[in-house]
From TrEMBL:
<feature type="domain" description="EamA">
    <location>
        <begin position="11"/>
        <end position="141"/>
    </location>
</feature>
<feature type="transmembrane region" description="Helical">
    <location>
        <begin position="266"/>
        <end position="283"/>
    </location>
</feature>
<feature type="transmembrane region" description="Helical">
    <location>
        <begin position="183"/>
        <end position="206"/>
    </location>
</feature>
<keyword id="KW-0472">Membrane</keyword>
<dbReference type="InterPro" id="IPR037185">
    <property type="entry name" value="EmrE-like"/>
</dbReference>
<feature type="transmembrane region" description="Helical">
    <location>
        <begin position="12"/>
        <end position="33"/>
    </location>
</feature>
<dbReference type="Pfam" id="PF00892">
    <property type="entry name" value="EamA"/>
</dbReference>
<protein>
    <recommendedName>
        <fullName>EamA domain-containing protein</fullName>
    </recommendedName>
</protein>
<feature type="transmembrane region" description="Helical">
    <location>
        <begin position="126"/>
        <end position="145"/>
    </location>
</feature>
<keyword id="KW-1133">Transmembrane helix</keyword>
<keyword id="KW-0812">Transmembrane</keyword>
<feature type="transmembrane region" description="Helical">
    <location>
        <begin position="79"/>
        <end position="105"/>
    </location>
</feature>
<feature type="transmembrane region" description="Helical">
    <location>
        <begin position="40"/>
        <end position="59"/>
    </location>
</feature>
<dbReference type="InterPro" id="IPR000620">
    <property type="entry name" value="EamA_dom"/>
</dbReference>
<feature type="transmembrane region" description="Helical">
    <location>
        <begin position="151"/>
        <end position="171"/>
    </location>
</feature>
<dbReference type="GO" id="GO:0016020">
    <property type="term" value="C:membrane"/>
</dbReference>
Amino acid sequence: MSGQPPSRLSAIILVLAGIGALCVLDALMKWLALRHGAPLATFGRYASGSIIALAVWQWQGRPWVAPGGLKPNVVRGSLLAVMALAFFWSITQLPLALVLTLTFVGPLVGPFMARLYLGEPVQPRYVAAGAMGFAGVLVTVGGMPQLSGTSLLAALAAVGAAILYAASAVIMRSRAAADGATVITLIAAVVPMLWLSPVAITAAAVPGWTDLAWMMATGLAGNIGVQLMARGYVHLEVQVSAVMEYSALPWAALFGWLLFDEAVAASTLAGAAIIAGACLWAAKAPKPAPKALSATPPAPVP
């Protein structure tokens, strides 16, 4: 290997593919959460993810975090446990497209979190691209319905999950070059599994073999998504990768059409076009490289 970092376009493709894998995870998790409840389904996702991540970690020679990296990775894993519970419960109460719409507040706050945590300057183009992407989401779903009671609580859970996800993405961006995708994926699976382990102990019944196999599939999809995104995040500013999150809605529409025979409305196509435009706008390389990134060139990711 030449040791040269991948191009900006390659990094963007990695992030987009990782988001697609996580959309597969969301579809599987909605089905499992409706059958077994969000807490048990979420534990199954991270337990299976831990098994797969441990196997990959062993195969990769047991790499470990760089000095000072354990604490932020454990904090990130803890945020993911709360985020996942909130998000997966919300998709059992609301349509997946609506939940995705609500979670897209994450890319709007991501650049400001990156400013505080990483020192990345907030560039107006990225903020405008994020707003443009959110407008595309609203076009896709035709606006927000009136919410009350459990639906309102689920909507608030989705927004809270989005903010926690944005915070976890900023931490991943800060550690991706130093720690590597293998270790990041492992800790991001093991820590939530440990937090959620009481759910397995108190479960009324053990899922059947078929459902256990689907839980393994969620672990695989989730780990692939995290691996791809961690590799792409090494070479992208948070503000760019945050806008890429809007590509989840076209992914969800595609999987709904392929797997569940869900018709794709004209508003979905129009919104997808706006979202694609926002992603392309944000993907355009900035003229000066941000100081915070140029000071620490990315290391190879195992």
